[in-house]
């Protein structure tokens, strides 16, 4: 429940959208979607860094708070972009994106761009971190993904808050647990109900949770 109202549920929409396209915008800002959900977590938005101010203004125009972590340009011409994570929150709710100075500190410590969007949600007398991470595919929990989980752990340590992470981990929950990172952050994974896969053409690969 939100703001102590036991009759008001909090519904959060998550999706790996592969691009923050006009079609996604139309669906997101539709009356039906806005009435059905209080918050939104998207990964693989592929939003370019130069477009962040316009996207942030668009969310403000639709009465939404935003935590917007742009994608990484894969070439100098900025034609190719991968990644990108975004959280939107109805502005009648208490949500604040993580201070850029904190994110900069995490990037300096790990030597890598953060690959999550995150903010602090305040619910009556309780605050928690909402994180939407995106892990790299086909490399398991070694190398770059190990760094991305370390970044989340650092953020949790800095804020000292409990957290809820909803994103694309690109591995099964059992594989994530085997890495030791959830235990290190005093967390566990939650099974997605009524789903066997989150990949369109691959059965048995539930990698978004």
Using brief descriptors, characterize the structure shown.
10 strands, 23% strand, 7 helices, globular, single chain, alpha+beta, 209 residues
Summarize it.
This protein is α+β, with helices and mostly antiparallel strands. The protein has helices at 22-28, 31-36, 52-61, 100-110, 144-159, 173-179, 181-184, and strands at 12-16, 39-43, 64-69, 72-73, 81-82, 85-90, 94-97, 116-123, 126-133, 163-165. The protein has seven helices and ten strands.
Radius of gyration: 17 Å
Mean pLDDT: 87
Beta-strand percentage? 15-25%
Which ranges are low-confidence, i.e. pLDDT below 50, for 5 or more consecutive residues? Answer: none
Biggest sheet, spatial arrangement of strands:
1-2-6-3
Secondary structure category: alpha+beta
Helix coverage percent: 25-40%
List the total number of helices: 7
Q: What string gives the helices and strands in order?
A: EHHEHEEEEEHEEHEHH
Instruction: Specify the overall morphology.
Output: globular
Q: What's the number of extended β-strand segments?
A: 10
The major pleated sheet works out as: 4 strands, mixed
- Cα(first) to Cα(last) distance is 21 Å
Secondary structure elements and their pairing?
Elements: E1 12-16, H1 22-28, H2 31-36, E2 39-43, H3 52-61, E3 64-69, E4 72-73, E5 81-82, E6 85-90, E7 94-97, H4 100-110, E8 116-123, E9 126-133, H5 144-159, E10 163-165, H6 173-179, H7 181-184
Parallel strand pairs: 1-2, 9-10
Antiparallel strand pairs: 2-6, 3-6, 4-5, 7-8, 8-9
Helix pairs in contact: 4-5
């Amino acid at each position: 429940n939100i703001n102590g109202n036991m009759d008001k549920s909090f519904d959060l929409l998550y999706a790996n959208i592969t691009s923050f396209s006009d079609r996604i915008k139309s669906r997101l800002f539709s009356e039906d979607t806005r009435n059905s959900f209080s918050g939104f977590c998207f990964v693989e938005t592929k939003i370019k860094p130069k477009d962040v101010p316009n996207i942030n203004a668009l969310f403000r125009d639709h009465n939404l708070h935003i935590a917007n972590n742009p994608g990484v340009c894969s070439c100098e011409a900025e034609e190719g972009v991968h990644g990108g994570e975004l959280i939107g929150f109805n502005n009648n709710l208490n949500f604040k994106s993580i201070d850029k100075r904190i994110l900069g500190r995490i990037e300096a410590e790990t030597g890598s761009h953060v690959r999550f969007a995150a903010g602090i949600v305040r619910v009556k007398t309780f605050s928690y971190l909402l994180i939407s991470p995106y892990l790299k595919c086909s490399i398991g929990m070694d190398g770059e993904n190990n760094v991305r989980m370390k970044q989340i752990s650092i953020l949790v340590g800095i804020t000292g808050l409990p957290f809820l992470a909803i994103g694309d981990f690109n591995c099964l929950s059992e594989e994530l647990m085997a890495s030791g990172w959830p235990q290190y952050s005093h967390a566990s994974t939650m099974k997605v109900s009524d789903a066997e896969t989150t990949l369109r053409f691959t059965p048995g690969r539930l990698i978004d949770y």
